[in-house]
UniProtKB/TrEMBL annotation:
Segments passing through the bilayer: 16-35, 66-86, 167-184
Full protein name: ATP-binding cassette domain-containing protein
Compartments (UniProt record): Cell membrane
Sorted UniProt keywords: ATP-binding, Membrane, Nucleotide-binding, Transmembrane, Transmembrane helix
Gene Ontology cellular-component terms listed: plasma membrane
GO molecular function annotations of the record: ABC-type oligopeptide transporter activity; ATP binding; ATP hydrolysis activity
Domain ABC transporter: start-end pairs: 346-575
Length: 586
């Protein structure tokens, strides 16, 4: 169940992630200001200690005064460091919350996207790449937030201190800091470019690794392993090259920023000494000189960090730009409830479909069906049987209308559609999880009746871990027939008015097919079933037959089809003869 939080409303805006963490931000602000303003206590106490030492040597103060001062210094530093720990904790929490929110939005967007888009983009690798970007973004947010305080606030505090001691000297000595920023601005482009090139090459490499694992068998069978190896190695070399360039741009700049920002120290030493001698713009003692020098060097160091922060933000921006399009708001159901209670009804009116720039696959399909009916769908090879079934999943636009239980399918969103239609396609699409989890998908119900319905319970119960058996990636530890039956169990377990089964028995032997069909008849008494198949063995038992072809679309009973549709009659009789021959040969 997903709550309609701020993040769900505008997940494509970076500010959303900050706004939805206002309490955490308040914690960061409080501890951050305390820590960073407290940092100026360091130079102040160092100056006071230097002055005190001189006074002790001149016998104007005692060693006890010095120890008291050092004790106070220690207490203040402890307080400052405690604030630092708190600030780090809150910043980490902000990054974790952001990463979690982004991952959740990403996951939902991928899962609720049009399945056709998922098919094209390989959802798995898309997700892997996107998660890498989410992590980079969250890390960017963490660094940015940290540096806003550890660099921004602390620099203001140090500057205030310097200004207090000698405003004119501060202006002169700090002139070099903007120069370091200017340089950072100029180098923005090559740093962004090299970072983007590196990230893209890593993404491509990840995609190739995933492709090699997924299609390992195909590459082996077709003898293209060496070719794939070569392509992978060359991409790996490219990644290494890009990593070196990107890291060189990032790291080589730091010493340069440091040198530029520290140049002002020359003025501090000369004019500061003149101040102590009473010949400068201000009148200083040793404490003031020590404090000013310590403050300035820390400020210079911090300003060079600011340039580094800028690079980190640039990197995070590249990642953000890549994932932002995948973080669009989506409408998601409040809860996945089984809403179907009434007996099913279906009305298909003048349904026509053509893929873009292609002639119509079928035109003007019209028929009605009532609860308990099984409709066999067949036709010549590649006539559009699977496409017809998938139209009910809202994958493609069609002309004509489809009503399920009186609801116009075209007006339903993906979530509503999922409540009306259950589907099992060619590809079982099994999860790398247990048998039970593949049926329940996280819901709490008994999966035994569904295993029985697909004639799988005996085989599963014979396994040492029964329904808790892990089936491996894409069900690789099951046979093809077992995979198909498991996918079928998952589909049947969903109480939906329309069940679409696309060639569900291609990997199942005829006896098991007959057993499952018998079960299906009982289970689907209040539902409508589409059974898409080339194999017409059980079509005589079905309530209606839909014949699909470019030339002719026909809906009627099996008997009528035999009399009026010669193509159907020929196909059926040919299969009958083959089955008789097979029986005789056994
Ligand atoms: N996404 C697509 N874009 C364009 N054409 C497609 C697409 N998917 C399928 N086709 C084409 O549409 C036609 C029908 O495909 P479909 O898979 O629906 O037929 P089918 O009757 O189920 O096939 P089969 O007899 O192999 O089971 C085929 O010519 C196929 O190449």
């Amino acid at each position: 169940m997903f709550r309609a939080s701020k993040v769900n409303r505008r997940p494509d805006r970076l500010s959303t992630y900050f706004l939805s963490n206002s309490a955490v931000l308040a914690g960061i602000a409080l501890s951050g200001i305390l820590y960073n303003v407290g940092l100026t206590a360091g130079p102040f106490f160092e100056g006071q200690l230097a002055q005190c030492l001189i006074a002790v040597m001149a016998k104007e103060k005692t060693v006890g005064d010095m120890v008291n001062l050092a004790g106070l210094y220690l207490a203040v530093i402890l307080l400052v460091q405690a604030s630092r720990c708190l600030k780090r904790f809150w910043v980490r929490r902000l990054a974790n919350n952001t990463a979690r929110s982004m991952r959740r939005v990403l996951y939902r967007n991928l899962v609720y996207q049009n399945p056709a888009v998922l098919g094209l983009d390989e959802a798995g690798s898309l997700m892997t790449k996107a998660i890498g970007d989410v992590d980079a973004c969250a890390e960017g947010i963490r660094k940015f937030t940290t540096e806003i305080f550890d660099t921004g606030v602390v620099m203001i505090a140090y500057l205030g201190m310097l200004w207090y001691y000698d405003a004119r000297l501060t202006l002169l000595a700090c002139l070099f800091t903007p120069l370091a920023y200017l340089l950072a601005q100029r180098l923005k482009r090559p740093i962004t470019r090299s970072s983007a090139a590196y990230k893209n090459s890593v993404s491509r490499l990840n995609g190739m690794a995933l492709d090699r694992v997924t299609n390992a068998l195909t590459y082996r069978v077709f003898g293209c392993e060496a070719q794939r190896d070569e392509a992978y190695t060359s991409q790996l070399a490219q990644v290494e090259k890009n990593a070196v360039v990107s890291s060189a741009w990032e790291n080589a700049m730091q010493p340069l920023y440091n040198v530029i920002a520290m140049t002002g120290v020359l003025f501090v030493l000369i004019r500061g000494a003149q101040n102590v001698l009473g010949q400068g713009w201000a009148v200083w003692d040793i404490a003031a000189f020590t404090t000013y020098l310590a403050c300035f060097s820390r400020l210079a160091l911090k300003s060079s960090h600011a340039a580094k922060l800028f690079n980190a933000v640039q990197k995070a921006r590249v990642s953000w730009q890549r994932i932002q399009p995948q973080l669009q708001p989506v409408s998601v159901p409040e809860a996945q409830l089984d809403t179907f209670t009434a007996p099913a009804s279906l009305s298909v009116e003048k349904l026509s479909f053509a893929y873009p720039h292609q002639p119509p696959l079928f035109s003007n399909v019209s028929f009605r069906a009532q609860a308990g009916e099984i409709i066999g769908i067949t036709g010549p090879l590649a006539c559009g049987k699977s496409t017809f079934g998938r139209l009910f999943l809202g994958e493609q636009d069609y002309t004509g209308r489809i009503f399920i239980n009186g609801l116009d399918l075209a007006e339903q969103n993906n979530a509503q559609l999922s409540q009306l239609v259950a589907y099992a396609g060619h590809d079982p699409q099994l999860l790398s999880d247990t048998i039970a989890e593949n049926i329940t998908l996280g819901e709490a119900f008994d999966c035994q009746p569904w295993l029985t319905a697909v004639a799988l319970s005996e085989e599963v119960n014979a396994l040492p871990r029964g329904i808790q058996t892990f089936i491996g990636a894409q069900g690789s530890r099951l046979s093809g027939g077992q995979q198909a039956r498991l996918a079928l169990a998952r589909t049947l377990a969903r109480s939906r008015p329309l069940i679409i089964l696309d060639d569900p028995f291609s990997a199942v032997d005829p006896a098991t097919e007959a057993e499952i069909l018998q079960q299906l008849r009982m289970l689907a008494q209040d539902r409508i079933v589409f059974l898409i198949s080339h194999r017409l063995t059980h079509f005589p038992d079905f309530d209606q037959i839909l014949w699909l072809s470019q030339e002719k679309v026909q809906v009627s009973s099996h008997e009528m089809m035999l009399k009026t549709n010669s193509a159907y009659a020929q196909l059926f009789e040919k299969q009958q003869r083959k089955e008789v021959k097979n029986d005789e040969s056994h």
